[in-house]
Design goal:
This protein is an alpha/beta fold. It has 2 domains: 13-156, 3-Layer(aba) Sandwich (Rossmann fold), CATH 3.40.50.620; 161-302, HUPs (Rossmann fold, 3-Layer(aba) Sandwich), CATH 3.40.50.620. It contains 9 helices and 10 strands. The protein has a 10-stranded mixed beta sheet, sandwiched between helices. Strand 1 (21-27), helix 1 (32-41) and strand 2 form a beta-alpha-beta unit.
Length: 317
């Protein structure tokens, strides 16, 4: 039997059944990539009584007209919200919200996430140039991940279907466990989830520099692999007991390079990383986000507010 410390973080009674999201927001700038983000957000599983917010942030202007003015933004946002409501017409319990704000987009998105207890903010990634170049450090997506205290789903291509090849990178931390559980909520219960752990090679590299015998280096590699498999087995045991299919993957080397290579080799359509809400993104998080060719979910959990501004129920944690 698993110890209490190793139990999943989901509240009692929620692990065995698929639980939809209670608070979802999607950011729109009316580009093709943001339309992809809206299409993906509409494919996410929503809980009964969920709030689905469509956010557009206009820059601060002296007037309210012009090609980038708030009037045009309001009209485009209204059309997008109407389209989303039509797509969700079979879900009358879902509250589709129109959010038009003015100012700095990451700052306003962070405020919305805090005010409404947003669980996942969905945004589009800028179109990839050919040859493929990484996202610049000051890209809007990078700023959103740094500043929004909620999980951020960065969408790449147009979503043809629900996620069916998810990959979750774990290091056995609490953040990794939350990342895995959020991925489980986003994917159908029948979808196998590949769980990757990258083994630290610093001890082996030290032996190599010391010209240690090859047999000693190989023995250490085998010991590390066996230990990592046991640790992954313990980490995944509570979920496998529910019948959820989990596939173990191990790689050795630089974590960023290994995670990106695994996603490419497995043709993953979703790559998930956990991130501490108390700390800024790491070089690993930003490196994966800048270079990934598939959707990236940065799992980040903050304490939700007691209630929505309109007096709605408390969002799920």
């Amino acid at each position: 039997m698993s110890s209490r410390r190793s139990l999943p973080l989901l509240p009692d009674g929620l692990l065995r059944a698929q639980r939809g999201l209670r608070r979802v927001a999607v950011g729109l700038d009316f580009s093709l990539q943001s339309e992809f983000a809206l299409a993906r957000a509409l494919r996410l599983p929503l809980a009964h009584g969920a709030a689905f917010s469509v956010l557009h942030v206009s820059p601060r202007l002296d007037g309210h007209s012009g090609p980038d003015g708030t009037v045009d933004g309001e009209q485009c946002l209204r059309r997008s919200v109407t389209s989303a409501a039509k797509r969700l017409r079979q879900r009358p319990d879902v509250d589709v919200r129109e959010e038009l704000r003015t100012g700095d987009a990451p700052h306003e998105a962070a405020g919305l996430a805090k005010d409404q207890g947003v669980e996942v903010l969905v945004v589009g990634r800028p179109h990839l140039a050919h040859p493929v170049k990484p996202l610049p450090e000051d890209a809007m997506v990078m700023r959103l991940v740094r500043e929004v205290d909620a999980s951020v789903l960065v969408v790449m291509p147009h979503p043809g279907r629900v996620y069916h090849r998810p990959l979750v990178a774990v290091n056995f931390s609490r953040e990794s466990r939350r990342a895995l559980e959020l991925t489980m909520r986003l994917c159908p219960a029948s979808t196998p989830i590949e769980v990757l752990h990258v083994v630290d090679l610093r001890e082996e590299e030290a032996l190599h520099r010391e010209d240690a015998p090859l047999t000693q280096q190989l023995r250490l590699r085998q010991e590390h692999e066996d230990a990592a498999r046991r640790a992954l087995g313990r980490f995944l045991a509570p979920y496998r007991e529910t019948g959820r299919a989990m596939e173990i993957r191990l790689r050795f080397g630089d974590p960023c390079e290994c995670i990106l290579a695994e996603a490419r080799d497995r043709d993953s359509d979703l790559l998930t990383l956990g991130m501490s809400s108390a700390n800024p993104p790491t070089a690993l998080t930003e490196g994966v986000l800048r270079h990934s060719l598939c959707d990236v979910l940065i799992s980040r959990h903050a304490a939700p507010p007691a209630a929505l501004p309109d007096g709605g129920g408390a969002p799920a944690s």
